[in-house]
Each structure stands twice: as C-alpha cells, then as structure tokens.
Amino acid sequence: MEFFQIAAMALEHNHSIDYYYEESEINGTHDYSQYELICIKEEVRNFAKVFLPAFFTIAFIIGIAGNSIVVVIYACYKKQRTKTDVYILNLAVADLLLLFTLPFWAVNAVHGWVLGKIMCKVTSALYTVNFVSGMQFLACISIDRYWAVTKAPSHSGVGRPCLIICFCVWMAAILLSVPQLVFYTVNHMARCIPTFPHHLGTSVKASIQLLEICFGFVIPFLIMGVCYFITARTLIKMPNIKKSRPLKVLLTVVIVFIVTQLPYNIVKFCQAIDIIYFLITDCDMSKRMDVAIQVTESIALFHSCLNPVLYVFMGSSFKNYIMKAAKKYGSWRRQRQNVEEIPFDSEVPTEPTSTLSI
C-alpha cells in the first residue's frame, strides 16, 4: 500500500490537524501492521525542543523591554495623544500580551503542556487575539499616516471614532480566537494542539487557517501597501521639505512587514491547501513543512519586538519623552541617595550619605 493511502487512513481516524504524527489519536479498528509506514517525526520534535525555547527567550526579553517602554511613556508621560499614538499604544499592549504567551509555548515544546486543558485553550486564544490585532493596528497606523500627509491636518485629537475603531479591532481578533477556545485541547502526549471532530471535515480546518491568513496578513498588507504608496508619492511631490527620513521610515516599515510575515503566511496557505487536497504524500516533505512552519512563525513573532523601533523610537518626539522620563528618574534617584541618614544608636546627626543601608 502506498504511503499516501496509509497516511490518509491515519488521518481519517486522526482528530488532530498535525501531519501524520505517530502520537496521533487513532480510533476504531486499524491494521496495526501498517504503523511502520506512518511518518515518524521524532527529529522534528527534537528540533522544536532546541529552536523554539531559544528563539522565544530572545524574543521575550527584547520584546518585553521595548514594548514596556512604549506603554509606560504613552500611558504616564504623553498626555496629548493623537490617533496614531492610541493605535501604537494598543499595538504595544497586543505585542506584550502575545509575548507573555511565549514561555508557555517554550515549555510545551520541551516538556509538553503541564497547565491543563483550560489554560491550553486560553493561551491559544490569547496568542491568536494579540497576533491578529497587532497586524490590524499596523493597518490602522498606516491609514492615519495617510490622512495626516494627504489630507488637511486635524487638531481634534483622539475622538470617539478612534476608540470605536480600536474596539472593533479587538472584537474582530477575539472572534477569530473562538476556534482556539473550542478546538484546542491537551492530547494523550501532553501537547496543546487543535483537535477537530471528525464530522467537521477538512474544509473547516482549512477555512480557519485561511481566515487567519486573510485577517492577519492579506487585509493589513493591502491597506498598508496602498496607504504607504500614496503617502510616499505625496511626500515626493511636496516642495521644500525634508523627504528622505519619512520615506526611509515608510520603506523600512513595509520591508520589515513583508520579510517577517510573508514567509509564514505562504507556509500556512500551503498547509491549508494540503489539508483539503492531501498534496503532501512524502514523509520527508511533511517533516520539512513542519520545520518551515516553526521557523517562519517564529520570524513572524519577532515583528512584535521590532514594532517599538519602527513606530516609536524612530520619532524624535518619542525620544524626547524618553529623555524626560530618564531625567525625572535620575533626579528621583539622586534625591533618594542624598537623604540624610540618622543612626538609631545616637542623637548626633551624621554627614549625608549615598547609601540607604541601616
């Protein structure tokens, strides 16, 4: 019997979206003599045990530091906020929440899921909510920059439409996370994976993937591409202004988005097509697909670490806020260090000291 036929038999009884894993749930009667023909992916899991924790640790440290600074500055120091500021603040919050899920997935890659079924569902849903909402807030930023450059500037600040847009973005992302809440579970190998009922068929599994691609990449990419293209063309036509820096920023934003997001979504699209048509019939090709999804998804996640650099630290006004916050913190530290210390065993005052030790 051909490998494809054996794999199809396994997938017919398999409730998981994974490719031919030997730990797949197989129900009913089956010819156990054919098991050796099912693709064994121990090397794929061994790669994940090394690569994912290392990459997630780097992304977690860098991303938490950068996005935390953004949230602190916008929430505590910058009182006059524009629409772009609100979108950047929401983007930083989405990135932070996304990054907070990475330690769980790192542990899952090494030791399996140890937090139970409920946390598996919640963590998977949080991952989707914040990944998708982050992409949509990038599109919102591009629209606002387009209006700022091509239309008459507005001084109304943040209004109800901006808040409604933010609410709609979060709601759309939450709706897209419903399949994670419903279908993710912990299998008998202690892995947090999607488990689809057999009666739903492969079309539903593929539809979920395609919806995530559409709302998490295609729509934001088209909006960003059109808005930034028109913005760049408008900047070039404007006389007597310094164009090089804004154009470089726009070009950098688009290039980074394409480089980090396009490979992952291409692999996801191929995976969705394979779910429907069973195109991958070779075990080695299936293994390469699994490794590709791990690597490209990690690169896509790293965009959360780059957002503060692309959208915030390139702006001179935000740098000024950082300097003000640093000076304020430095002044506070000096005041604390110069406090006169009175010893408990004497009534004679001492000289000012730079230590707080008793």
What does the model show?
- With about 350 residues, the chain is mostly helical.
- It has one domain: Rhodopsin 7-helix transmembrane proteins (Rhopdopsin 7-helix transmembrane proteins), CATH 1.20.1070.
- It is about 70% helix and about 0% strand.
- It contains twelve helices and two strands; from the N terminus they run αααααααββααααα.
- A two-stranded antiparallel sheet has the order 1-2.
- Helix 2 packs parallel to helix 11 and helix 8 packs antiparallel against helix 9.
- The longest helix is centred in the middle third of the chain and has 37 residues.
- It is globular.
- The termini are far apart.
- The N terminus and C terminus are likely disordered.
Second CATH tier, the architecture: Up-down Bundle
Beta-strand proportion: under 5%
**What distance separates the N and C termini?**
80 Å
User: Could you name the CATH class?
Assistant: Mainly Alpha
Strand order of the largest sheet: 1-2
Q: Output the structural class.
A: mainly alpha
Q: Unreliable runs, pLDDT <50, ≥5 residues?
A: 1-36, 339-358
CATH superfamily: Rhodopsin 7-helix transmembrane proteins
Largest sheet: 2 strands, antiparallel
Report the count of strand segments.
Answer: 2
Transmembrane segments: 50-74, 86-105, 125-143, 163-186, 206-230, 250-280, 300-318
Subcellular location: Cell membrane
Family: Belongs to the G-protein coupled receptor 1 family.
Domain G-protein coupled receptors family 1 profile: 66-311
